[in-house]
Amino acid sequence: MAEPTVVRRSPAAAFAARFEAASAGGGLRLAEIPFLTQINLRVDPKSPAAERIGTAIGVPLPVEPGTVAGGGDLEVLWLGPDEWVLLAPDGAAPGLVARLTEAAGGEHVSVVDVSAQRTTLVVAGDRARDVLAHGCTLDLHPRVFGPGRCAQTTLARAGVVLVAGADGFRLLVRSSFAGYVAEWLLDASVEYVGPAA
């Protein structure tokens, strides 16, 4: 008997063609980065475990609020005084969880794979800030929220983790809200799409 084929479908897969159409004008790019590894880490930042974890992953845990640290394919986002989310390519979760757990050395640390909890939406281009400003209360000016910054916030009343990069923004969105946020982004971007954008 043949084994059943397992097909993974990302939470915003149904929006791929519409994202591509909205991105055709050049001033805005909407996309999904499906299946990123996302590991939630809770540890006392002043503990020996935090230092060992930083050494084990090759990236010291950022301690400045709302900042991102990175190295290679790994990014560490500060979410709170003792909480981070680690982002890595698809499939990296088992090895990353093992490294974090080993580095914890039995100290009080929480390491949870939350990869299936969220997907990642991209809002990039010259009009990215304009689109997000329709539903986000953060000051998104580059001097305030430029590359290397992150925040837990709301976008159109949906909880997201917003990450600023050199080419735009990434939104870590709960899978159950991905369709809602994708639809909202498409609606908010209507005025910036097409030849007039």
TrEMBL record:
<protein>
    <submittedName>
        <fullName>Sarcosine oxidase subunit gamma</fullName>
    </submittedName>
</protein>
<dbReference type="InterPro" id="IPR007375">
    <property type="entry name" value="SoxG"/>
</dbReference>
<dbReference type="Pfam" id="PF04268">
    <property type="entry name" value="SoxG"/>
</dbReference>
<dbReference type="InterPro" id="IPR027266">
    <property type="entry name" value="TrmE/GcvT-like"/>
</dbReference>
